[in-house]
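Lecture 7 notes. Example A: sequence first, then its C-alpha cells.
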Amino acid sequence: MKLSIRGPIIPSDHQWIYDLFEMDAASPKKVRDFLDSIDPDNNEDIILEVNSGGGSVMAASEMYTLLREHPNNVISKNLGLAASAASYLLLAGDKVLMSPTAQIMIHNASTVASGDYRDMNHTSTVLKNVNISIANAYKLKTGKTHDELLAMMDNESWLTAQQAKQIGLIDEIMFDNGDLGIVASANPTFSDGVIPQAIIDKFRNEKLGIQTLDSQIPSPLTNQVINQTTINQNPGEDLVQPKEEPKNMDLETLKNDHPHLFDQVKNIGYQEGVTAENKRIKDIEDLQLPGNEELVNKAKFEDKMEASALAVEIIKAEKTRGTNYLNNVQKDAEIINQVPGGDAPANNNNNADFANALNAALNGTHEGEENELSNKLGGALG
C-alpha cells in the first residue's frame, strides 16, 4: 500500500482547492482517508513516499501522529526532498529510507506577526516552543540532544543521504551496495508551492457568492506561510488551527453581523459600478456614426447595452440601410426603363435663331426691337 506525500503540506480545509486545480498537496485529511480505507485484516506494509518542501507545522504534526499510531508497519522513503515540516513527517516510518540523490532540510519555524512589543515577545516564545516540538521528532529518531538539534535548525541544515544516515535521521540509503561514494550536495532552491492564504480566502468567498476586499484589516497576529514551515496562532492562545469560515455566509448575515465590513463592500461595489458605467458610456460614444443617433441613445440609457453589443447592432443597421438603398435604386431604374423612348428633334436652325436672340438680349436692345426679340425667343423655344 502506497501513500504519496508530494507538494506542500496544507490544512485539511485547503485540500479541495489544490484538488480543484489538480495540484500536488497533502493534508491530514488525505492521510486519514487513506488509513481509514485500509482493511483491519490487511497487515501489508504502508509505503510512505515523500517529496515535499514542507508547509503547515500543525498539519504535518497531525499526519506524523496518525502514521505513528497506526498498527501497520510504515516504511518511509525520501524520493527527492524532505524539507522543513516534511522532514519530521518522513520520520513517521518505522523504517526510513532515502534516495542517494535526495536531500533533507531542517530549520526553525517561521511566521509573520504584527502588534506591540508584547505581541512580538509572545510570538517569539511560541516559535521557540514550536522548534522544541519539532526537535522532539528528530530526537526520538537520532537520540541527539535538543541543544544539538536546535543548533542544526538555527543553521538551516541541508543533509545528503550519507549525512542523514550518519546522524541517524534515516536507516538506509536506497540502492546502496556499500560502495557508494560521497554524493555532491548543493543548496537547491525550490518554490514551496503553497497557495497564499489571501487567494484561498478570496476563492472560497467568491464560490460562496461573497465579495472580498483587496485589503483586510490586520489582526494582532497575521498568519502566513514563510520558508515552507508555518504556524497558526492568536495572541494569548496555544497553537491552534484557524477557525473555518462559516459555510452559510450571505449578504444579509454579513450586513447584520459585520456592518462595518458590509459598508466597505458596498462602497467598493459602488465605486466599481460608477467606473464601469463611465467606461461603458465612453465606449458607446466612440462608436457614434451618422444615422445611428437613436440606436446609440437607446443603448446608453434604455437598454444599458455594452459597446460590443451595440457595435453588432450598428453593423446590422448599416447593412439594412445599404440593402434598402440598393433596393430603391433598382426600383427607380425599373420605372425609368418602362418609359417609352422618342425620336430626337430635327435640326431646323431654331437653335441659331435662339443664340442670336440671346446675344442681342445680353448686349442690350432698343425699345423698338423688343417685339422682334420677343418673337425670336418665342420662335426659338417653340
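Example B, a different protein, same format:
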Amino acid sequence: MPSLPSLDDVDVAGKKVLIRADLNVPMQNGVVTDSTRIKRFAPTVDNLVRRGATVVIMTHLGRPQGEANPHYSTQPIALSLSEVLGRQVTFLSDCVGPVSELGLGKLPVGSVAMLENVRFHRGETGNSRSFALRLSVHGDIYVNDAFSCAHRAHASTHAIAQLMPCHAGPSLLAEVQALETALATPKRPAAALVGGAKVSSKIDVLRNLCSKVDYLIIGGGMANTFLAANGIDVGRSLYEPGVLAIAQSIMANAEKSSCKIVLPVDVMVANEFSATAPHHVSNIAEIEPLQMALDSGPASAAMIIDILKTCKTLLWNGPLGAFELEPFAAATNAVARAAAALTRSGDLITVAGGGDTVAALNGAGVADDFTYISTAGGAFLEWLEGRPLPGIEILRSNHKQRLGA
C-alpha cells in the first residue's frame, strides 16, 4: 500500500503544527476520569515543541450535535494535558473565528494551545470545506494523529487535508503499521479470533477475515449461531436464527479460501445468566433445552492454544464468553495468557482491538504483553471489514500526488 507521510523529516521549527488528536476521554463533573489517551498523545506534543514548533490541538468530545455545550468543552482536557506535559496548554474558547485567531496570534513560538470542541460547529461532521478553511488558518502544517476518527469524513480529518501540507502523526502511523502487519501482510500461519454476541454486527468482518487468515476462531454468542448453523441444538443460548444462512455462507467461503473455521467443541453452560448460577462443562452435542452456553469450555480453550502455538500472527477482536461474569471468563483468560506468553517468547505477533477485548485482556492481566492493542473502536472494525478509511486515504492520496509532482 502507498506509504503515509510522517513527520520525521519535516522541519517544524518556527512553524505552527495543527494536529488532530482523539482526546474524546471519559469525563465526570467537568473532570477527566481516564487520561490514558492524553498520556499517549503527550509525547507527540512534547517532541514537536522540542523541535521548535508551536502546537495547536484539535479534538472532539462527545456528540454535541453542532451546538456549543459547556458539558462537552475541551477545557478540562487542556488542563489535564498541561499536567501530563508539565507545561501550560492555552485553552481557546472557540476553534474558529476571532477568539482562536487572535489568541493564537499572541502565543510565543513553542507554545501549546487547545481549540474548543470542533463538533460545536455543524461544519465539522458535514465535512464542510469552508469550515476546514477556517480551521486551516491556525497552522502551517496539518497532522492527523487520530486513527480512531479516520473512518469519518469530517472537516478536521478529511477536508482540511486537501487544503494544507498534511502528515500522519506517530500514533496513527503505529496503528496502521500494526494493523497492516496483522492483516495485510501477516507472518503465517495467521489466525483471527473473533468473539462477541452477534454475528449480524460482524458479518463483513468475518467475510473479509476468512479470505485473509489461515484460522478463523469464533467465540461468544457468535459461536452459538455457527453451531446452530451446523445443526447443533444450542438450547436457550444466545444465537441469531435469522443469520444461519449467512453463517453457512461464511463457512463455505472460508473453505474455498483454505481458511479453517474453529468453533467450540465444549462449552460452559448454566440455566441463568448470573455469576452465581450453577454451571458445568458440556459437550456441544449435549446442551440441554434449558441451558445456555456462556463460555467456551476447557477443551476448546486448549484446542485454540494448540493452534496458536503453530501460528506467527494473531488478530483478536472480542471475548470467547461472557467474561464480565467471573465463572465465564475462564476460556478468554486461558487463551489470552497463552497468547501473551507466546508474544513474550517472540513466537507470536498479537494485535487486539475493541472495547470488550481490551477490557478482557486487562482482566486477564496481559494487555501490556500483547504486541499492539488498539482502542480505535469503529475505525478498527471498519479496517477489519476491509473498508477504506477516509482520513487515511486522503493522506495517502495527497502524499502520492506530492511524490508524483
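Note on Example B: The CA atoms of residues 54 and 100 lie 14 Å apart. The first helix runs from residue 36 to 50.
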